[in-house]
Specification:
heterodimer; A: 330 residues; alpha/beta; Rossmann fold; 3 domains; four-stranded parallel beta sheet; disordered N terminus; B: alpha+beta; Vanillyl-alcohol Oxidase, Chain A, domain 3; six-stranded antiparallel beta sheet; 17 strands; 35% helix
Amino acid sequence: MLGFFKNAFSPRRDHADCSGCSLCLLVCPVWRQSRDISLTPQGHFKAMQHGLSTADPAASVENCTLCMACEPVCPENIDITGTILELRRQLSAPLWLRELQTRIAERAAKPVASPTASSILLTDQALLAHPDTLARAVRLLGGEGAISTSGDCFDISLALEAGATISEQHRERFLTPLRQMKKIIVADGLLLRYLKQWLPYASIIGLGEALSGHAGVRRNLCATDLYVIEPRAYHSDYQRLVKYYDRLRVTHGCAFNLDLQRIAIPATARNLSQRLGLTMPNDEGQTRWVLHGRSINRIVVENLEERAALEKASSFPVVHLADLADVHEV
Amino acid sequence: MAKSIDTGTMISETFQRKVIEPSTPSAYSDSCHVGPDALLGIKRQQTNPTRWNGQSWQEFAAALRDHDIELRENIAARGTFATDAGGTAYGLPHGVVIARSAAQVSALLKAAQQFRVPVTVRGGGLTTEGESVAFGGVLLDMTGMSQVLHVDTDALTVRTEGGIFWHSLAEELRRHGMDYLSAPLNLTSSVGGTLGVGGIDVNSPRLGCSADQALSVQVVTPRGNIVECSDTQNAELFQRVILGYGQFGVITEATLKIRRYTPLRMHYFYYDSLRIAVEDMQLLNRNDASDYSGILTIMDCAVNLLVAFDSDEREAAFRANWQSHLRGHGEPGFALCMLRRYVLRPWKLPEAWFLFQRKRELFPEFRRSEYMRDGLMHDRTVVFSRAVWKFWGSKQMVIPDLATSAEKFVEAVERGNAVCRKYFPHYTLYCVGIKLRPEHKAHYEMSCIPPDAEGWAYGCEFEPMIGGQVYSRDYFQSFKNAIYDIGVDLGGSYYRFGGMMKGYIRRVFGDEVVDRHLAMKREADPAMILNRDVIF
């Protein structure tokens, strides 16, 4: 408990505090693929300490996948994700981002719809593209009467990832209906991180944690499963979730996509440009590393984007958590 | 470029022991660079390397481009490597090359030799005396070579590239149910860098230093030849490269011994006397009573002897035969000792408060539930290393050390502790033994292993806890000198004798040994380009 308060209130530090210990390299998917320190936050921070200006172009800022694995391992408690997003904010905005900001502004001008349920699931685009899985998830989380879904957050998520400024008015328009919710379940881990900052007293959890807490889902987890934790949500609340998933391991015996530091290894390593389909993603090295040396019969994922990548790379069945519960329970 | 493996001919030419030439500064004044501290002269205590003047850099850069080697000269690339973990030495290279293959490193070194461009090799960059800082020339970032090439679970060996971090190696080995034998308690030391200096773990009292785990290595010599060497193949080169501080080649691949992974059964014993704790640790080492042992202190007030085991059998044998011989306390017993001590010395209450706070922060880190299962500690290197960075790491790290024979060790620790007391309010000592391998005696010459050590060598690191305090570089240097003077006095050695501390090399090893190594270095590296100013 004391540790929680210490972490919660200790000030976040910035690039000037980077000691160059390289612990963040060990968990960085960009580092794993490139072995090039200049493409990583540490390389960027050290270069900034020794002469690089924020105006200089830096591939590390654009290449970061925002998996947030580096933050829990940083002994200096540097706000790495926040710093990367701040640096992105200073880059000149591409056309698609300007269009996105216009879209957010237009939506902000419209009236806010009243919530129809006491809880809400903020989906991501991958989940919305799979209506069957989404419907099963909703039923597991309480049914349509108890939980509503919203895709209103896509543009906000994208703007956050791009480092775009979201005006106070736009943010309020987005947050107003959420303030009335008893529970907010979030599929996008980056949005989850920011919602926890914006609504510190609200009950907010990631979709993976919400579904894995369901008895019907847990009952069907087994020791020969590889459970792939969605990295962003996990790393955004690492101190608590590392213990949560460790208990899940103890009770169900399944393997996780955790490294020796108990950091989630992403099954994909996509920067923003790749997520948007502007450049081709190359997930092969990352999925191979997740699967390397595993004795498993099935892969269970929290995130549908990772399901697609793992299906491509392995011969094992890959199922989403929502598809794990027995039909009669859903 | 085709990969070429040298025959032993080059090696014997390079390493035949020649008549030692005079090594005064004037004798070499017109020749290639040798740091003034590497020559005969006044007894120096510190070296600040001069920046290389950049002569022929453009021709060198053109030669690299001809070989399709990417040379980065922008400030982003150069600034990344401006300092090392010590954070007290600063220098910028003219350019940076990321190592990608032995053939590429070979081409680089051949061009560097031709144009006399210094090459500074960097792995994890965890040196503290500027050894991996480039004061001009090219910086070779070895972490670009971080692949595990082959794991043989039957022969219990792994072949890996030299730039890999030990932790990355452990990640790969664990997928096979394996583990390395011993490595520094630091996740981001590189394999190649460690084999070049030693590498100490808490199982070193039983298994020796990390460098002793290397069965063979692929080396690119300063002339650019790619050579495989081991105890039986090109043995003289192997002797110089292992524990050679990067003077005789770049380690591009290594074959290491490995073992089956086991969690640890941990025991902690607490002392209020350094001497008694060291004596008890040496008792365990002499009798092979534990698989792991080491001492970690909070100043000299709370001295923790860590004892651990790989198996229930070894633990049971310890409990039956040796535990009763140890004079340390358990945690409650030690708390009572401390209470008695500070009740009788109320003016020392600030010290007591510091100990209490430190304990409150440190202990939970070593007992995190995700690493403890059924009373066993899993992934000890992660637990220890994360704690090391979290509680001892900072942008400046000053860690002078002393290495001595078993007989001299208590005196070394006590005298070093007195120096720490004089210079800093808070500090930590880390003591560990190193089992020596008689057949590797040749490896140990001019290394961290003291020449008079038999059976075990012992090392102690003296690390001030700097926190938010600001100290001048001169203050740090005076502290280091005071520690290193003890080593000269006792006839020991050091782990960190390179870089800024290389003024102690002649003082502690003597002219005959240093001159012989300098002659070998000149022969192997005619332009004296490889890791200049680290030793020579």
